[in-house]
Design a protein that fits this description.
Helix content: 25-40%
Number of domains: 2
Mean pLDDT: 96
Largest sheet: 8 strands, mixed
Bound molecules: 6-O-phosphono-beta-D-fructofuranose
Shape: globular
CATH topology of the largest domain: Fructose-1,6-Bisphosphatase, Chain A, domain 1
CATH architecture of the largest domain: 2-Layer Sandwich
Strand order of the largest sheet: 4-3-5-6-7-8-9-10
Distance between the termini: 62 Å
Number of helices: 8
Radius of gyration: 20 Å
Structural class: alpha+beta
Length: about 325
């Protein structure tokens, strides 16, 4: 007998039925995002076979060398989502300015920010990379959005998600009603609900941080990591394990799956920029997902989703994951 499985399309349509007054616009937008992620997944999977690995001469607005896959993924995301009339504008980590919907296409009621291929330096070495996106409402009465219209705190997000291109391609989504994960079945070309109602365990024995930055850290982070390293014989009374994939999507997925804490804190090296990771493309969408799965997310001094953005490419310190550990770190910041 056929074993019925829930496709992402069915899941989205059933979710839509619970929203009074829903027009289907949002569901269609998510369908276009899903298509974009499938196309990017296909490029990432084929890698060297189709000549998409390696770098270009160009740099992005962050001053980082662009990978071929960064540019391809950005293009795929823009053109999968600009034509359908659901979005009023987009902003990408790879582009200086906002992307206006081309003349000739209708403009819709949503704004989207995205990082088309996060952790892309990992693609050349065949380690997991991912796409992150966040959807906001276009402010009422705004027909032609400007950069200012994007500068909404993370609490205003109506949806956030990521696609992880790892051993399997997985898509994880929240619309503010919990977190669900889907695995791409390559044979039928559909995402299937495989991780319903994801929850982050409150306690954990695993932390993730780039230890090579240790000498630049603030005292609260040094204290926390030293205590983890002291393990059973220290104040924490238990051993901790460490991971650093250098691919935020993969780290967040691990935390959603088995718990843990991820830190890219403020340090004396990234102080002038205000942190390392981007608020609009990485920190806010991941914070929304993590909070919806029962975890916590903070700069160490403030809930990330309450940070008022002042720039599209703004950076923030990020400490997210299992609630108990994030709270412990916050308490060290308050004490220092
Ligand atoms: O912002 C891009 C990113 O690759 C993240 O996905 C990742 O967490 C971080 O940078 C890795 O930073 P580092 O190069 O310091 O390890």
């Amino acid at each position: 007998m056929h074993n019925h499985r829930t496709t992402i399309t069915q899941f989205l349509i059933e979710e839509q039925r619970h929203v009074t007054g829903a027009t289907g616009d949002f569901t269609s937008l998510l369908n276009d995002i899903v298509t974009a992620c499938k196309v990017i997944s296909n490029y990432v999977n084929h890698g060297a076979l189709i000549g998409v690995l390696g770098s270009l001469e160009s740099e992005n607005v962050q001053g980082e060398t662009q990978k071929k896959l960064d540019v391809i993924s950005n293009d795929v995301f823009l053109h999968s989502n600009d034509w359908a009339g659901h979005l009023a504008a987009m902003a990408s980590e790879e582009m200086d300015d906002i992307y206006e919907i081309p003349a000739g296409y209708p403009r819709g009621k949503y704004l989207m920010t995205f990082d088309p291929l996060d952790g892309s330096s990992n693609s050349d070495v065949n380690v997991s990379v991912g796409t992150i996106f966040s959807i906001l409402r276009c402010p009422p009465g705004v027909d032609k959005p400007t950069l200012q219209d994007f500068l909404q705190p993370g609490t205003q997000q109506i949806c956030a998600g990521y696609a992880l291109y790892g051993p399997s391609t997985v898509m994880v989504l929240t619309t503010g009603n919990g977190v669900n994960g889907f695995t791409l079945d390559q044979n039928i070309g559909e995402f299937i609900l495989t991780h319903p109602k994801m929850r982050i365990p409150e306690t954990t024995n695993e932390f993730a941080i780039n230890m090579s930055n240790m000498r630049f850290w603030e005292p609260a982070i040094t204290r926390y990591v030293e205590e983890c390293l002291a393990g059973k014989t220290g104040t924490r009374g238990r051993d901790f394990n460490m991971r650093w994939i250098a691919s935020m999507v993969a780290e967040v997925h691990r935390i959603l799956t088995r718990g843990g804490v991820f830190m890219y804190p403020l340090d004396s090296k990234n102080l002038a920029q205000g942190g390392r990771l981007r608020l609009m493309y990485e920190a806010n969408p991941m914070s929304f997902i993590v909070e919806q799965a029962g975890g916590a997310s903070s700069t160490g001094r403030q809930r990330i989703m309450e940070v008022q953005p002042t720039g599209l490419h703004q950076r923030v310190p990020v400490i997210l994951g299992s609630k108990d550990e994030v709270e412990q770190i916050i308490s060290y910041y308050s004490a220092s």
